[in-house]
């Protein structure tokens, strides 16, 4: 099924050229020359991609993009901005308004086609779920965070991982690796289902790394419960000898053997209560750094909460 592309361009001649050429390339396209009417049309038709001119009367492309990113139904739509302004400040501003890419007028239609194709391919990857955990990944998470930030919602990004995961995989192998990842994933899903936490989204970044997005008021009890649920599942991941000892012995490349504690859940939490994040990637980065600090504590089920700006 061909992808649907919306073109919001007050220059009808240019808009028709873009529409005709993209349709010739196999896309379904519709042109919206009046930016003031664009948002309800986009919300109704839900295109796979939107091309927005920046400089339009009544409603600018920037404002329209912000409307898209705030909306709970169409915030995932990729946005390509078109503008005669091509300086770095303009491009940076467009990206801060939620645009995915930017094309300076006048442009070669071949470049436009390439950007459209790349954005649609990236969107397809964004909407793919991890086959092991059946969860969306990092790009989907960034879209969710962007939506929440544009709506001025107070949110917590909770970065979960398993400490001493590498040595465990080296000793127990790939099948047990997947079982460990699935155990944490199932604990996250179970707590989400059982604890009455609303507006909660679980995403899988890969390996043992997950980020859960939820309201500020819920994150502390949620994190503590996940730690507890994983500990109940952990026994099935180890043999009796290692469980009783509370550690595993792993041989390094040089032949020396090192003891590592059994795995525990490490959580790093960052909220936007005091930090005003400019973009979603920034929030994900800080959550990851806090999680690294939590792992360094070497405490079983340690929870660290960030409440002041670092790395910004």
Layout of strands and helices, then pairs:
Elements lengths: L3 E5 L3 H13 L3 E5 L5 H8 L3 E5 L7 H10 L8 E5 L4 H9 L4 E4 L4 H18 L11 H13 L4 E8 L2 H8 L1 H21 L6 E6 L2 E7 L3 H16 L5 H6 L1 E5 L5 E5 L3 E7 L8 H17 L6 E4 L6
Parallel strand pairs: 1-2, 1-3, 3-4, 4-5, 11-12
Antiparallel strand pairs: 6-8, 6-11, 7-8, 9-10
What does this protein look like?
With 312 residues, the protein is of the alpha/beta class. It has two domains: 4-126, Rossmann fold (3-Layer(aba) Sandwich); 138-306, Reverse transcriptase/Diguanylate cyclase domain (Alpha-Beta Plaits), CATH 3.30.70.270. Helices cover 45% and strands 21% of the residues. The protein is built from eleven helices and twelve strands. It has a five-stranded parallel sheet, with helices on both faces. The protein has a five-stranded mixed sheet with strand order 7-8-6-11-12, sandwiched between helices. The longest helix is centred in the middle third of the chain and has 21 residues, at 174-194. The chain is elongated and about 75 Å long. Mean pLDDT is 90; it is low at 300-312.
């Amino acid at each position: 099924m061909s992808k649907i592309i919306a073109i919001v361009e007050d220059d009808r001649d240019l808009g028709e050229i873009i529409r005709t050429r993209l349709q010739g390339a196999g896309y379904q396209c519709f042109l919206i020359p009046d930016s003031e009417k664009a948002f309800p049309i986009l919300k109704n038709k839900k295109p796979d991609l939107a091309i927005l001119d920046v400089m339009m009367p009544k409603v600018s492309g920037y404002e329209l993009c912000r409307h898209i990113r705030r909306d709970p139904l169409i915030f995932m739509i990729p946005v390509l901005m078109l503008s005669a302004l091509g300086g770095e400040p303009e491009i940076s501003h467009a990206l801060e308004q939620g645009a995915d890419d930017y094309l300076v007028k006048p442009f070669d239609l071949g470049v436009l086609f390439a950007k459209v194709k790349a954005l649609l391919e990236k969107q397809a990857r964004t909407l793919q779920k991890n086959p092991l955990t059946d969860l969306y990944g990092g790009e989907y998470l960034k879209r969710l965070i962007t939506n929440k930030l544009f709506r001025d919602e107070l949110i917590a990004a909770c970065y979960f991982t398993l400490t001493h995961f590498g040595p465990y995989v080296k000793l127990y192998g790939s099948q047990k690796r997947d079982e460990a990842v699935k155990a944490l994933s199932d604990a996250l899903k179970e707590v989400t289902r059982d604890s009455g936490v609303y507006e909660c989204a679980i995403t899988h970044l890969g390996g043992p790394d997950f980020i859960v997005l939820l309201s500020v008021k819920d994150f502390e009890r949620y994190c503590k419960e996940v730690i507890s649920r994983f500990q109940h599942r952990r026994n099935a991941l180890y043999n009796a000898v290692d469980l009783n000892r509370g550690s595993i012995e792993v041989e390094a490349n040089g032949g020396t053997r090192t003891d590592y504690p059994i795995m525990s859940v490490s959580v790093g939490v960052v909220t936007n209560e005091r930090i005003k994040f400019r973009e979603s990637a920034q929030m994900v980065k800080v959550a990851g750094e806090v999680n690294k600090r939590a792992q360094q504590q070497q405490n079983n089920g340690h929870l660290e909460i960030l409440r002041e700006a670092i790395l910004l």
